[in-house]
Every structure is written in C-alpha cells, then in structure tokens.
Amino acid sequence: MTDPTSPTTPEDCARCWDARYEGATAIPEPALVLRQWPHLLPDGGTALDLACGLGGNALWLAERGFRVSAWDLSPIAIARLREAARLRGLQLDAQVRDLAALPPTPESFDLILVAHFLDRTLAPSIAAALRPDGLLFYQTFVRECRGDRGPSNPAYRLARNELISLFPDLTIRVYQAEGPLAASAAGLGDLALMVAQRA
C-alpha cells in the first residue's frame, strides 16, 4: 500500500488501515485530479474507485451519475462508505477486496480513479480494465517534492515521470507534477496527477 510501515500480509495490512480509519470522523473531499479536470469525465458509465478508503471519490462520482464500484482492503472503510452512501441516498457497490489477489477484470470500467495508492504490479491490470476510450484518473505522492505529506519510504512514492511510464499503452491527456517548484499553497508540491485514456 502507500504506507511504508504497512505489514506484508493482506490481513495485517487490513488491520493497519482499519486502525487508521477507526478514528476518522469525516469523508475526505474528492481527489484533486478529479476536481482539477472534471470536464474530462466521460458522460456517465461505470466507474471504479480503487483502494477507495473512506470513499470521498466514490461518493463524488455517484453524485454525478456514474455506476460506481469502490474497493478497499479495510472492512471499516467500506462500512463507513456504505453508511455515507445510504445517508446521501446514493447507490454504489462498496466491497472489501484484496486488489492484489482480485484485480479488476479486463474492459470492465469506463473510468478508474486511483488516489494515494501505489502498487506498481497492478498497473497492467488497471490499464486493461478500462473499456475502449475509458479514462484513468490517477494521483499519488512523488519522491521529488515540496513538503512532507505521504509515506516516508521512497518505495511508496513515484520517481520522476514514473506515473507516465507505468501506463505506456494509454494516451496521456494531462499530466502535472510540479515538485519543488510548486507554490506552497497550491497543494501540488508532493503529488503527480494524470488523466490517461485507452485507445
């Protein structure tokens, strides 16, 4: 996962994230990559919030008419998301799922959102899970950064331009990684953001 101290087994990892989410009191706002380029969203269809956590992105997409699946290893996160969706009157499919063991199936989503999650071995499955013309919205932490948010272990942060190289068969529509040049208030100094499309 994105945390450098994450345990190595899925069960231990789920307990680690459960402990983190147990104390969470609010659903996070949607990812910057969604808010930055909402005009690139497809006109509805199926969407996957992969490693969804508490599901701020899943709820945001469901509010915009997508048929949303949201997957995470943490039972607590998924329970919180289901309750949040119920309170908002939204329909979505939230599942506890080990992504390494059960990646998305090929050509199953029109949109996939990944935020603050990095498992390089899943990149081919993520790309293949997009339908033709499907879009990948991805943001996570980079090594070359301004600030100290995110994991301390560089293995869980992207190298320079790595996000682009992880998805060589997709067409890059937008990419932003300002690193140490970012304005301090912009929130971009520790992130890479990308929207890419399958042919």
From TrEMBL:
GO biological process: methylation
Keywords: Methyltransferase, S-adenosyl-L-methionine, Transferase
Methyltransferase domain mapped to chain residues: 48-134
Enzyme class: transferase
Protein name: Class I SAM-dependent methyltransferase
Enzyme Commission code(s) on record: 2.1.-.-
Pfam families with a match to the protein in the record: Methyltransf_25 (PF13649)
Recorded GO MF terms: methyltransferase activity
Gene3D superfamilies: Vaccinia Virus protein VP39
Keyword Transcription regulation: no
